[in-house]
Design a protein that fits this description.
Elements (H helix, E strand, L loop, with lengths): L7 H10 L14 H8 L4 H4 L5 E14 L9 H10 L2 H10 L7 E5 L24 H8 L5 E8 L4 H12 L4 E8 L1 H8 L8 E7 L6 H5 L20 H11 L3 H19 L2 E12 L4 E2 L3 E2 L3 E2 L5 E2 L2
Parallel strand pairs: 3-4, 3-5
Antiparallel strand pairs: 1-5, 1-6, 2-6, 7-10, 8-9
Helix pairs in contact: 4-6, 5-7, 10-11
Length: 309
């Protein structure tokens, strides 16, 4: 039996009691740490062969967008400085603590635009992964910036927590981050609006494919970008648009190599956003369920699930 629209707290209790087997509509956002500790991959239950909570890498990511159409982040040197200044290991736990609907849950720290499940993805090691490199960030920025950056954020976790971490991280650069919080719908309505007076915004992206084009196509100029998509960084870079069109014409291994080179160049030389987390799917099952198989595009394979013997 399949029931749609079940309250998430009720779904959690039903699975724990064995009266339901899986919550397709998600779980309470603050349930992740306890479920991970009790039933996750490193839990006592998992060591005994009874893992119920699964965390799987998804084809999705979280980025800090810098609005290149505004004076503060119109220069690449400051965008690169932000990439060296943000604390990626500090940002990820906020997303892990407040889980969202799959696949919009923070997984692991990253500095790359292409998630690991994407064809052509590579770890370029361009920006620090263990801790911020403030010395290099200050050098690239050319000294204290003495500026205010307006950061838009939804007024719910984990965005609020991420905004405060970013505010702390950019202070040593001389950037005073002023956080303005909105309901989720209003937030997304504002950050797609040309001329909206914001400088920073965090967004989660689910690319829905292992092909690399959707992840980079986000940054295509207005004339190149498909209708209905949005670049929260408002990047207008003719060289990138040209390289993207050339990559889009290729297929097979040549296509993936071209996108790998393009991703490297975009991250190093243009830096319209600071990638800080891959995303993960978080799935909780009753004790009687087994044969869990995760597919990065479609999620849990419901047809593969089985009853434990």
């Amino acid at each position: 039996m399949f029931t749609i629209g079940v309250d998430r707290t009720r779904a959690l209790h039903e699975i724990e009691a064995g009266r339901a087997d899986y919550a397709l509509d998600g779980l309470p956002s603050d349930a992740a740490p306890l479920l991970d500790a009790r039933f996750g991959p490193d839990s006592k239950a998992a060591r005994a062969g009874h893992q119920q909570y699964f965390i799987s890498p998804a084809g999705a990511a979280r980025w800090l967008h810098m609005n290149t159409s505004r004076p503060l982040f119109s220069h690449v040197r400051l965008r690169r400085a932000v990439n060296f200044a943000i604390d990626r290991p500090g940002l990820v736990p906020a997303g892990q603590r407040f889980a969202e609907i799959n696949p919009f849950n923070a997984g692991e720290p990253t500095a790359d635009y292409l998630p690991p499940s994407t064809d052509g993805a590579a770890d370029f090691h361009l920006y620090p992964m263990n801790r911020p490199d403030l010395r290099r960030a200050r050098r690239i920025a050319g000294g204290p910036v003495h500026a205010t950056a307006v950061m838009y954020t939804p007024n719910v976790p984990p965005w609020l927590q991420e905004a405060q971490i970013i505010r702390r991280d950019l202070k040593p650069l001389g950037i005073d981050v002023r956080v303005e919080a909105f309901p989720v719908g209003e937030f997304f309505g504002r950050i797609v609006r040309p001329g909206e007076p914001f400088d920073l915004a965090v967004s989660g992206w689910n690319f829905g494919t292992t092909d690399p084009d959707p992840a980079l196509d986000i940054f295509a100029g207005n004339a190149s970008r498909p209708s209905g998509t949005a670049d929260f960084s408002f990047l207008e870079n003719r060289a990138f648009d040209r390289k993207l069109k050339e990559a889009e014409m290729l297929s097979g291994p040549r296509r993936y190599r071209a996108y790998r080179r393009l991703a490297f160049w975009l991250e190093r030389d243009v830096a319209p956003a600071a990638a800080f987390a891959t995303d993960a799917s978080r799935d909780f099952f009753s004790t009687r369920m087994g044969c869990q198989v995760y597919q990065p595009v479609y999620g849990i394979d419901l047809g593969a699930l089985c009853l434990r013997g």
